[in-house]
Amino acid sequence: MRTIYLNNAFASYPKIPNLYENIFKYFRMLESNRNFIGYIEEIKSMIEETRGLLCRLVNFKKDGNVVFTSNSTLAINMILKGILSKNDHVIVSSVENDVIMKPINSMIYNGLDISKIPCTESGELDTTIIPRLINRHTKAVVLSHVSNVSGTILPLKQIGDICAKYNLFFIVDASQSLGTINIDNEEIHADAIIFSGNKYLLGPEGIGGFIGSDKLIDNMSSVSSINNQVPLNSIGAINEKLELGTLNYIGIYGLNLALKFLLNIGIDNIKFKTDELTSLLINELLNIDNLQIIGKPNNIDRSCIVSLKLDSLNPINVHEKLLEDGIYTGVGLFSNSSYNKLINAFPNGLLRLSFNYFNTLEDIIIAIDKLNNIIRNIKYN
Q1: Beta strands per DSSP E along the chain
Q2: Do 171 and 83 share a structural domain?
Q3: CB 146 within 8 A of CB 154
Q4: Whole domain around residue 143: which residue ranges?
Q5: Do 247 and 280 belong to one domain?
Q6: First to last CA, the chain
Q7: At what angle do helices 72-83 and 98-108 cross, to 10 degrees?
Q8: 26 Cβ partners below 8 Å, 6+ apart?
Q9: Residues 206 and 283 both lie in one domain
Q10: What's the rounded Cα separation, in Å, for the pair 356 and 137?
Q11: Where does the Aminotransferase class V domain lie (predicted)?
Q12: Residue that is last in its domain, among 231, 264, 297
């Protein structure tokens, strides 16, 4: 039975061609030299090259401001708990992901104040509202570039311009966009772009991080005080303030290979292909009864993430039926209880289809056919 993987918003599959084989070959080659000093120097050089590749991907000027962590969740927590303190005020969207909201909510008890930008059911927000939410204690605007529920792409340039005008930190979680949507930091003026290696960057698990401005990194004092214990000669300690101990250099090398693959293809070319798949998927879904497409009914300002509300049907039952046919989708709340409550999908959640560069038009056609048959059979049985 053919396997069709449509859960790339959770983790990408497949990865770039021969990713794990090439990681294995690289480290076998390094170890075969039997020269520990040479091994360390090569690893350091590879890590610095990877920082440069990430900066090239988002048009950021300072390679040394790339900070590696084990995942994007840790990066978000480091940033928010590093720059926000008692009596600060932060602005988020009303349908923000729980990964961002959990650390913010934990700080509310210590005096942090928040405001929420209202969002429509399709995930759109009105940027003109943001200046009205700003007060003298406002320190940051924190947003996901792409919703992991609706797939809606937020207008980063307009928001970044507002943050620059009012001298606010602009924190962008690009976990669901980087690698499939172009980001130019010279245009958006973000103070942090958070990335996840194992999603649309097509890299291995266990590697993430952020690209931060000088202003952001200089103000992350709470993390700096923790990291004063780290020896300056540790592997990958280019940023002694923020990178704790020895880095995951195996994961970083895998990310290095994936970034070279993506940059060689070109993000615009990747977006063109995923837009084609998105258009086909949405157009076919519009012909199926008993489901509602969450987000925009086209590929304008939306990513390759399409979530479905299945009326009276339990999305878990549909998900399991699709698995029987070898089709892997996502199901549930996707760590976004706010969005699911807004669209009345709580607590059962949604069925989510998300694809990447390696999916094909045939994958979409087969998945649509199976989904249509399953919905009809469940309804009438």
Answers
A1: 4-5, 66-69, 89-93, 113-117, 138-144, 169-173, 192-196, 208-212, 292-294, 305-309, 327-328, 330-332, 350-354
A2: yes
A3: yes
A4: 19-264
A5: no
A6: 25
A7: 30
A8: 253
A9: no
A10: 41
A11: 4-364
A12: 264
The domain that contains 345 carries what CATH number? 3.90.1150.10
Beta bridge partners of 93: 117
Instruction: Map tokens 């990430």 to a residue.
Output: 54
Cα-based angle 360, 55, 158 (whole degrees, multiple of 5): 80
Q: ∠ CA 85-89-95 to the nearest 5 degrees? A: 115
Q: What SS3 state is found at 353?
A: strand
Q: How far is CA 252 from CA 81, 220, 281, in A?
A: 25, 23, 34
Residue whose C-alpha is closest to residue 307's, from 270, 369, 349, 335: 349
Residue among 74, 78, 76 at smallest CA distance from 248? 74
Residue type, 4: I
Are 336 and 148 spatial neighbours (Cβ–Cβ below 8 Å)?
Answer: yes
Consecutive H or E run containing 260:
helix 249-265
Count of domains forming the chain: 2
Alpha-carbon distance of 223 to 245, in angstroms, equals 13
The one-digit pLDDT tens for each residue of the chain (381 residues) are 789 999 999 999 999 999 999 999 999 998 887 777 788 899 999 999 999 999 999 999 999 899 999 999 999 999 999 999 999 999 999 999 999 999 999 999 889 999 999 999 999 999 999 999 999 999 999 999 999 999 999 999 999 999 999 999 999 999 999 999 999 999 999 999 999 999 999 999 999 999 999 999 988 864 444 444 444 444 444 466 788 778 999 999 999 999 999 999 999 999 999 999 999 999 999 999 889 999 998 888 999 999 999 988 899 999 999 999 999 999 999 999 999 999 999 999 999 999 999 999 999 999 999 999 999 887 554
Instruction: Please state the length of the chain.
Output: 381
Q: For residues 196 and 175, is the Cβ–Cβ distance under 8 A?
A: yes
Return the percent helix, strand and coil in the chain, to nearest 5.
Answer: 45, 15, 40
pLDDT (tens digit per residue) in 322-351: 999 999 999 999 999 999 999 999 999 999
**Cβ distance 23 to 254 under 8 Å?**
yes
Point out the domain boundary residue: 219, 236, 264. 264
